[in-house]
Each structure stands twice: as structure tokens, then as C-alpha cells.
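Researcher: For the record, we're logging two predictions in this thread. I'll number them. Prediction 1 follows.
Model: Prediction 1, sequence and structure:
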Amino acid sequence: MHSFRNVFCLPTIFGAFLLSGCGFHEEATGPLQKEPVAIDLNGAARANIELDIGAGQLEVHGGTDKLLNGYFEYNVAANKPVVQTAWNGSHAIVTIRRPSGHPHGGRNNWNLELNSNTLLDLALNCGAGQARMNLGDVQLRSLEVHMGAGQVDIDLRGHPTRDYEVNVAGGVGQVTIHLPQEVGIRADAQGGIGEINVSGLQKTAGHYENALYNQGKVNVHITVHGGIGEIRLIG
């Protein structure tokens, strides 16, 4: 395992990061609402899906025969997600976002299931909280993650049949990526103030790769830019 550590007072910075957003007030909570969401496939062979959750808890995995299926849980009315969809022939565009300009607070949980056969460009924007993305059986074209404060766990273990790109920009917290096996992997990982831990890959000329990179039919290229916290790449 390769470990690169910058020593800094992480709790102090983490607290300052959170306090910097305290110009808002919390809205009164009400009964827990569980709202289903279902987007039909409508013949889509490719889709751009953007998830803008803000602060909250996110679970994403594959397996539905729809384009997207799942539910939202919230107990503040202002947290009700906005779902927008559009189609251009066989190309679907889906945006799900937490409304902007509202008070924070309350429960905000999303549990979403994606179609495993549609080619996906998937983007996640998350603030404070936790996101778990199990994408090993999803046909990715690209994955882009922007995180604020919290924890993001991305599981890519599966059997991809085509190349794809992963770009992760970390804020305050921890990013963990479980890498697929039996495909070529290249990872460019740069930390800000924090730590980078890499296992299962060899460091070569400033980046990490496995023995299969550029040797087989499928290659996965991962770029991670950390902020304050920890980056973990597990091969």
C-alpha cells in the first residue's frame, strides 16, 4: 500500500468548513414523506443523469428495467426533489436536484436504482452527508462526482465491456473507490491536505496503474483530486 500523508489539524478545518455555511436557519420538520420516482426507459440507449442532492444520504445501484426507479424520503417540504426529464431520440437527459435557495435541515434520503443496460454519463453533486454508489453492473460511459463534506463510497467492481472515465473532486471527508478486476486501470490521484491510500496498483511516473492497463480490451481511467481528508483506491 502506498500512503502519502500531509499532517494538518483536520478537525479544526472540518469544523470551520461546516460553520462557514451557517448563515441559514433550519425549517421546521414535519411527518416523514416517502415519495416514489419512476422514469420509463422509452427506448433510451444512452442517458445523462445528474443527481444534485446537496446535504443528505444517497444510495445508488443498478438493476431496474426502467431508466430510473426508487424513492425519496424527506420531512421538510422544501427538500422535495425536483425531477426533470427530456429525450432526444434514444438519448435521455435526467436531472434530479434538491431545490436551491431553501433552508437546510431535516431528513433528505435518496434511494435510486439505474438501468444496467443503458450507457450512462452519471454525475453527482453532494454536500454534507454520505453517498454510496454500487455501479459494478451499470454500463458507464463516464462518472463525475463533486463532494463537499462527508463520505463517498464508489464500488466499481464488475465486468465492464467498454472503456470509461471517472472524475472525483473531493472536499472535506473521505472518498473510497473499489476498482474493477480483470480490466486495465490507471489512476491519477492528487491530495490537498490529507492522505492518499492506494492498494492493488503500482505507482508509475506519477500515477498508478495495474499490469493490464493498455494491454486488454477495456481500460478504466480514474482521476481524483482530494481536498481535505482521505482518498482510498482499493484494487
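Researcher: Logged. Prediction 2.
Model: Prediction 2, sequence and structure:
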Amino acid sequence: MALIQSGHGSGGKLMNDMINSVIRRILGEDSIQQDDSAILDIPAGKIAFTTDSFVITPIFFPGGDIGSLAVNGTVNDLAVMGAVPKYISCALILEEGFDMDDLKRILYSMKEAADLAGVSVVTGDTKVVPRGKGDKIYINTAGIGVFKNNPARAPIETGDKIIINGSIGDHGTAVMAARTNLSFSKGLNSDCAALSNLILSVTEAFPESIKFMRDATRGGTASVLNEITEGKNFGAKLIEKDLPIKEEVAAFCDILGLDPLYTANEGKVIFIVKKEHAEKILAVIRSDTHGKDAEIIGEITAEFPGKVFIKTEIGGKRILPLQTEEQLPRIC
């Protein structure tokens, strides 16, 4: 069994052998440019640029792993701005003693995710930390996307509708179940996916109707909406009966005292859209594999400005404040 050694991050023969025989062979010799910087072909105009780091534990979980998560998370951060993702970087921080076969499995996962999203991994870096000074593997990425249209940002108004492209809380519950090996957690799977194609289909069909998009990762749906409404003269109302939450996710959260609305997703985007086009936009989202369970889950309202609240099935109203800490750390 081959293991990561300190020399794999030294800049010498071991590192270069790993870059050439493992990383470039898997991610693509044509895309990984072995130079101090990648040279990219980007059309004139605005670009979107993002960076992210991934420290999830466990690194393999139902529905994905740290490799697919790193690619999809970066792609989605670009896509929700209205950009078409094109290029990403990949910096690996490896712990001495990490299994080389696990690294290969992660790289293959990254390659598959990048191909599905239509992006190229064009540059990277590798560092090795001493045994016991890391946690197997961390991944840092940066991403670049180009705009076909204007960025998907416009003034939000009361009456605008809130749409999510599918079930809420899948990723956080799947990761927690895998981390703790709970016996009652069968059927939980992460929603880890790239949403760039889904988002592009919506923005091209309704370029003037999308007010705002945000992927609901750490902090979940409620936290995203709190960020949108904070300090504004409008609030966000969710309708409990319209929330798409899988039975197994709801049951898992009930047992552990969690709230699915604050639980992480890695394949969900919140859309704020003009109310007159909401149903048509919903139909476009539902035509995509990653949007078949999409729902209109609420609206922007003048009630409780600066707040997020939910109208319960029995007719009550409950404020959903921004939480001080995450329900579950290290989920991405």
C-alpha cells in the first residue's frame, strides 16, 4: 500500500513523480499546466472569480466525497452569480501517511465532476504536513467563470417569489450520519452536484426575471435568506407545507433535534424571482435532473422587515433567526 510521504510535498523527485503519474494522469495532462501560472483563454468582458476550501470529515460520504464536493462547490459559487464556470484550480494539503489509493479515488471523482460541469482543472499545488498535523486531506480551489449576460443581481421587491430546486438538508444529514455511523440513518444521501447547467437554462430563458441566486450550503436555507434580508426593508416568508423535505431527512433531524432549514445542502440553489414569471421558471427548473423536486417555498414580504419567518401548517408564524454557530461543523 502506497502512502503519502513528506517528500511528496518537497518539490523534489517524489512530488514530481506524483504530479505526473497520479495527478496529471487523472485530471488530464492537457488541462493541468505545469508552470508557475496557467494561461487561460478568456473573452473580453466581466468574469466571476471565487475561492473556497474544503475540510469535510469524513472525506467519503453517501453521494460524494471531498473531491466531487470541491469541484461542485466551486462551480456552484460561480453559477449563482450568473457566470458560466470555465476553469478551476486545485491545491492539495495532504497529511503524511495518507493512503495513495484514496488520493487517486478523490482525483478520479474530481475529474468526473469537472467533466460533467464542463470545467477544466488548470493549475494546482501540493503540500504535505507531518503525520498528526492534518486530517488526511484538505483541498483549496479557485474558480473563474465568464458572463454571457449581466450578473444575476437585481433589486429585490415585495411580492418576489422564493424557489428552491429540490429537497432541503440532504447533504448535512448524510455527512452527519456517515460521521457518526448512526443505525437509524439509512437512506440519507448527499445532494452534492454541479448546478451550472440548470442555472444557465433558467437565466437564458428568463434573463430579466432572476433577482438573486445563492447556493444554500453552510447554514442552509434559513441562513441564506437571513443574509438576503438583513438590514433591508423587506422580509422573507416561507410556507411550511410547501417545503420539500424528504421523510428520512425530517425524521433524522427530529431525532437529533436539528432543523432541516439550517442544515447544509451542496446541490441546492435559492432563487428570488419576479412573481409573474415564477411558475414558468419553476417549470424550467423541474425539467432538469437536479430540479425535478423544485418548489416555490415562499415570497418576499413587507411583514417583519429584515427577518425570515415561516408560516406553519397550523397557521402560526415563527421567526427563523441567523444562528450563532453551525449545527454541524466541517460539512464542506
